[in-house]
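Anyone opening a protein record will find just a pair of labelled lines. With that in mind, the following record should read easily:
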Amino acid sequence: MKSLIFLLALALVGSDHVSKYDPSFSENSLHIYRYEGVILSGLPERGLNQAGVRLICKVKIRGVGQRQYLLQIEEPRIQELNGIWPKDPFTSAKKLTERLAPLLTKAVKFEYINGRVGTIFVPANLPEDILNIHRGILNIFQITIKKAQSAYDLQEAGIEGICHARYLVQEDKRKERVTIIKSKDLNNCQEKVVKHTGMAYTQLCPSCQLRGRNIRASVTFTHVLKPTAAGAILQEAKVREVHQFTPFHELDGTMRVEARQSLILEQITTATMSEVPDFQIQRTLQFRSDSNVLQQPFTLIRDQNIILKVKDTLNHIAQHNVQTIHSDAPSRFLELIQLLRSADHSSLAEIWRLVKSQPELRRWFIEALPAVGTIDSLRCLKSRMQESEISRMEILQTLLLAMHQVKTDRPVMNLAIEIINLSAIKEIPFLRKATLLAYGSMVFRFCADKSTCSDDVLKPLHNLLAEATSQRNDENIVLGLKAIGNAGQPGSIKSIVKLLPSFGTVSTNLPLKIRVDAIMALRNIVHKDPKTVQRIAVQIFLNRKNHPEERMMACAVLFLTKPPLTLVSMVANSLLTETSLQVASFTHSHIRALSMSSLPGIHSLATSCNLALNILSPKLEQLGNRFSKVYRMDTFMYRVMAGISAKLLMIKSSSTVIPTVLMGKIKGHALGGEVDLIQVGLRAEGLQEVITKSRSTDIRITENRSIRRILSKIVNWKDFPEEEILGSAYVRVFGQELAFVQIRKDTIDQIGQVRSDQWRNYLQQLNNGINFQPAKAIMAAEVRRVVPTAVGLPMELNFISTGLAVAKGSIEVRSDPAISRLPQLLTSKIQLKARLSPSVAIHTRAFMGINMRYIRSGVCLQFNVRSTIPMDITAKINLKEGNFRIDTTPAQKENKIVSIDSQVYAISANMENLSSVRRVPILPRSTRRDISSQRFQSSAQSGRVPDERNVAQVAPETLADQIPCSGEDQRPRLPNKAAYRACMRADKIGVQACIDGRMENALSIKHIPLYRLIGRYQLNITIIPVSSGADIEKIVLEIQTGAKSLTKMIKLEDKETRMEQTPSVMSSDRLGRILMKQAKHEAIHGTHLANPAHLPNPAHLPNPAHMTNPAHMTNPAHLPNPAHLPNPAHMTNPAHLPNPAHMTNPAHLPNPAHLPNPAHMTNPAHLPNPDNPTNPAHLPNPDNPTNPAHLPNPAHLPNPAHLTNPDNPTNPAHLPNPAHLTNPAHMPNPAHMTNPAHMTNPDNPTNPAHLTNPAHLTNPAHLPNPDNPTNPAHLTNPDNPTNPDNLTNPANPAHLPNPAHMTNPAHLTNPDNPTNPAHPTNPAHPTNPAHMTNPAHLPNPAHLTNPAHMTNPAHPTNPAHPTNPAHMTNPAHLPNPAHLTNPAHMTNPAHLPNPVHLTNPAHMTNPAHLPNPAHLPNPAHQPNPAHLTNPDNPTNPAHMTNPAHLTNPAHLTNPAHLTHGESTASRRSIQVSRSTSQRSSSRLISKLRHSSRGTSSRSSSILRSSTQRYLVGKAGTPLLVVLLRVRRTDGIQQGYQLTGYGKISSQIPRVHVRLVDLEPKNNWKICADALLPRSHKLLTLTRWGENCEKYRVAVTVSTGQLASHPATKVKMQWSRINENLKYGGRMVGDYLPGLAYSLGLSQSYKLNRDRQITVMVALTSPRTIDTIIRLPKMTAFYQGLRIPTSLPVHAVSKRLQEEGFHSIAELSETFLTMNQRECVVVNDTVWSFDGNKFNHSLSNDCYYVLTQDCSDSPKFMLLMKRAQTDKMKKSIKLIVSVKNLTIEAVPSSDRMIVLVNGIKQSAGKPILPAGVEVVQNLTGITLRIPSVNIEKLYFDGERVQIVVDQMMSKTCGICGLNNDEKKMMMPSREVAEDQDRLFESWLCSGTSCKDDCKVRQEFVELGTVVEFEGQASRCYSVEPVQRCLAECTPMETRSRRARFHCLAANYTVTDMSLFNKKSEDMRRSVDSHTDCMCRCSQ
């Protein structure tokens, strides 16, 4: 008894302990709490604008029964925030409070047991949105206490659902308080309350969420309870809930919605008894909304008459969007949709009654109805269709969108079933298809959240498929499969399996395409039941009896299921024994593509595929693009948690090169999910046959009885199935097929049978003009996600995008003559006038925050795009003449064609105060300047600036959250601002385009992607009219092709060089080209130059006084007469050589005082700076060889006045006097060489008086400053290069260099490094230091100022030719231009001086050894052999003619010695030169081809003039002319002309394109040229500038080998480019090393060729390439770069690999002949079409089918047998379906016998029908019959060679199927086990013993009784065996294993041929008779 009492007491104590800590309320007390709920939306950083809502009230709770309590809210106050929190205070929303207070103050009753809220009882008229606020308060009291546990986890119910919660309990016994901390993970819920729409087609990616969630939420409760005897009383509670979202990675910042609750107990009083209202409705604590998610507002609208509001909105849209789209049209359209969603069916019917008779209102109502997405809108459409109130076009554009956008539920699905059965739908085939597909999509959305879908929803689709299958309606079968595929439910698998290969019996009788469609219908089922789809797909794939296309499609579906490693390994192992190369290639490429994926969603599959690649054979890599492939590319950026993938499935058949199936898909990955954005599929069978059909000669194919008769002799023959020409296409969006089309033969025939009167009606309407005003509005996207907050208000995250477009215009068409038939479009002149004004507006909005019909508070991103492009054009088309012209008017006013505006702002609005909606940017506006404009202040100056910010008076419980606690919080939030404006002005067409952009973002806060979006972006593109003098009437764009292109050219001048320039300003290379042409003319006549008898008449020589008179330099009257110029042929006459005696004549020596001072040669100040040896300021400019800095003083040159007579520019009467050449008075003064006064004046850098003093060349003071290499002080004045003041005075000896300077060793070239760039020298003249002090090597004073040496860019500092002042003016030193190109003259020793005199120092100083310049040509100026014209490089500027030689009187011809005949011949030189130039052109073409095969040094001359001569020359008449011009009122032509020339079929194909300015005075041009000198090399040259001469860039593309690998080389060279390109190149060059390093390229810093970039790419394997990039200062390379697909070089024909394309015309022919294959038989060896090799001897006289056309109507058959006369040879028989033509070829002892239809033909002249080509000779015969696709048939008795074209997979026989699959196919369509069985199967059996063939194929009996399956059985072969004919006995046999089928021994068999369809039971060896001997009876 005592024990019992103790236990009862203990239990009582325990019960008291539990009830003490359980939260509860006293039933007789009134608990009064102060409640505050706050919701803030914005960025987490402080100091930024936010939007918020706050509810403050009192909460009273009193007991009303056993564990039932009454909750009532009193004194509610609703406040809003739109600013910086906590700096800006909340403002009261009085009107909203007044409206909601009656609802908020209604009491609710709830159950509360041990801290858990039970059922909630509410009054009938309390909205759910208000009740949710009560739920938020009650959710605070939801506390779960576990006995004797201080920390525990559980799944707890709450307002957000049943989610994971973690508790931590702490007790303070001293204060008698218990603190309970509860935290909930709102992403880990068993049952989560969430509403969403628009995401049904998105598949979640669980593996993506492991890296980072886009949406994350949690809530933390802190409860303080006071334990009492009656239970724990809640004293205080704080709740903090955070919802964060980011479209990128969550670690890079998020947007946040934060909810806070505070509940503080104020007092507990005694409750007064009062009447409790009756609560009949029961609810739970979970959040609930009484409205559909689609009822969530786009914008707040006051409650009013819906019908009137809709009508007003429609009127506003219709009135303001007639011409163009108004800026507010998208927002008003969203408002219209929101109003229509709140309307019921009767209201919609009333609205339709009001608008149906008003076209504009009706249009916009119909456009908005599909986006409503409610059942009432769908019901309204159904009613309109039943009553025939809307047209077919309106049904088409409205119903389909409505079915795809409607919110699905059970009533909506029932309504959809009624719609698809309407007669109005069934009457329109296309609409019926689209509606059924849309219904399938509705099923997919309806069952997306359900594990199983009800049968009644799927029943309409299953019935459609079953009915179509039973009736064998292929079109309906395809429609049913596609609709079921859209539904994507596992319940449809049974219906699909019946049509799958290897599963159902029905599939055997269905076309291949339907079986493939059945496999494709499984794709969407993968999402719900991947295991079942895996099982089905792998069975189809592994069954090799299925068609390859079926297996490949099953493989694609299999990998959609993301198979595990085991299944992937199984598929990989099957490829090791795969017989179909198409399947092997497709599967291998698919596995490889997946193995390289970076998507997190298929990471596991990618690793499995990577492992499977180790199993597969490397040989599969070599399968090229001829086989089926899968191409896949994807990228995923984890920082933004987004990516994209693209996949292309290319399925080919063996019968064509063109793919049979192409399927491309683009998939997006973002926001933790993935969705198929778009997928397009194309299927084309027989397309290649249609394309190549024109190649075959149209020959009538008659009956083929002969072929059929032979086929009947082949046992088990099965015809190949006939392939119908069929094309189909489909498009899928978001994984749902929207539409598909199938094109059959009958479809094409129906299109061709359109009546001509219908065409006339259409054309007549166009002639009369069509006015139209189409408009379209669409809701492009609507994605919503609604979750509850702790306060009870819904937090919505939405993305909405809508677009509107309108285009008002008119089109009028005129034609001459009038078009009555469609083919006349090709011959008529058509004029089209169109006035269009398309306008588009797109509005996109993303919102996060509180969104209710009462209040809206949150953060909104708004993105608007608006574009309006007015057009008024007139187009004229004349296809017959190749003319196309467009006329348009210029811009008349400023038009903003594109406007983009993006802004993120905080919005606060309530329904009762819509006029004061507040929107503030997230980034607050600040008056502070940005950091870039701040000034630095030292610490002493700045001091400490007190913080002016203060903390607002806030509640104590939230004070800690509002006080800034770190420098980060105190940092000012200044936006990152930027602005950009750029305009492009085109005065010629009177328009200016401007781009204006402004940007403000939050990157100054954090440099993350999300904060880049926060702020505002604006971009405007504006077209502004520009006034350019006269008004522009019209802008014309005209394109002319063909023969009439020349007539359209406006600017006919094509000269690139203006020949009217004077020689003084003409560059030496250009003048040299002119002289070369003149020299060729003179060389024809054999005139001589050096013969004294032929010296020029002194009367024709210039006056010596003119030599130094500058005024005579430009006098045209003093120029030499061309007729008196020297004859080049005289250069070889020994009599014309200089007299050696003159070499020692002292009278001929110059004054020694005028020689250079040697002391100056050792002065370091006169040598070039070694730090900058190649400074261009001190080197001759190759682009400007006539630099006046290198020209002589005009005082010593001919008078300029004598050089400008255009009538007689070469008058010899004005040539210089030779006596002046050696006059010491005219020599330069050496003292002036170092005179500072003669140096360049820095203040006047272009002073002509200071240019190119020879002493300046070696004076360091005159070298450019390294810090300023482009100092203009060293440049020549380009404006006046011929100013006489710019030239050096050679008469002053002071200007000569001091010879003493030449002996300074410090100035000499380093012999160890002769190529040191610090001393650039000519390689042909290496500098020896010893030579510098040798007087023999001292410079001739006559050379110092020779312009030929000063301007030679090839030898800028050649020590062999220092600058001689005397040579600048010595005309005797000018060589004959004809000698420059004649190698014989250049190397003739007779023309060179005595070498002894040139090297002997004694001779150098002996005046007797020096020639008299006045009498003889200077030997030093004989042409240097190193400078001769290189035939491989004829354009070297160093070898051009020196223009100074033109005035040398020693080279002039005496006219007195010219005979009359010679003068006549001279006059005929022009005519003769034309034929000569033609011959030289062909020689240079071959030389150009030769040079392209040479070394790189030779091939690098594309920038040289001789190469350009044939590269840039016009290629005949223009083939294309494009004119862009304006028509002005003053008649001035302005615009541009593009001219294209081309010679594609010439020996060297070339293209020339030229763009010129139409202004007559403007010579600016762009020239682009392309040349194909060899099939493996392409040369291109782009030139631009004045006459296309200022800048030039060349690109050479060539193919070859690099390290024995096939390679391509691209080389870019430039001689001169403009400054913008230089600047851009330098910028790119600065980043190249870092970029190369980041890309993984190896680098080596070494100097390569200057002004050249070379890229070489070598194919080291079919999937890897090596890349080498050579830049001027570095070389980068990458080895083993993997490419997405293999590049099989072996797929290209051998001829193309070796020779390339001879012309562009071969491209089409190559494509058409890609299917040519050959089969060759030589003796006993056969090489089949597919590469098989057989060794088999023919042991009998039977015909064997070598190859034949195996289509349904065979066109040819080729038979082969052993020859009768010679058993080692063969005879052939070709049977062609051309009048049953039979051609036999039988070898004889001396020739080939040809029989046509059994008639022997005469030798060499067989009589054959038209279309059959034959060539017969003594050795063999060659046939060609294109009509039956036989390109070649050759036979000579031992060799048989047949080449067929376009017969892929259409042949059979011993040569194979011609499909690249090495299968030995027998007539039974089975694969032979060995080659003997293959030959036997294609034997043409004999019929009687009198035939040549004595064997036949027959089914045999095993011959013995065997025991099979336990009983005695007789077995019969299921395949034929070769046996002798009757009355014949075998001469030779062989043993082979045959397959047998066994029957009971007592079973009687009458026909053994029936066993060919039986199964195999066993295999046994039998005898096969290979040859027989017969004794035929009479």
Q: What stands out?
A: The chain has 45 helices and 65 strands. The two ends are 132 Å apart (CA to CA). The longest helix spans residues 1469-1492. The chain has a mean pLDDT of 75.
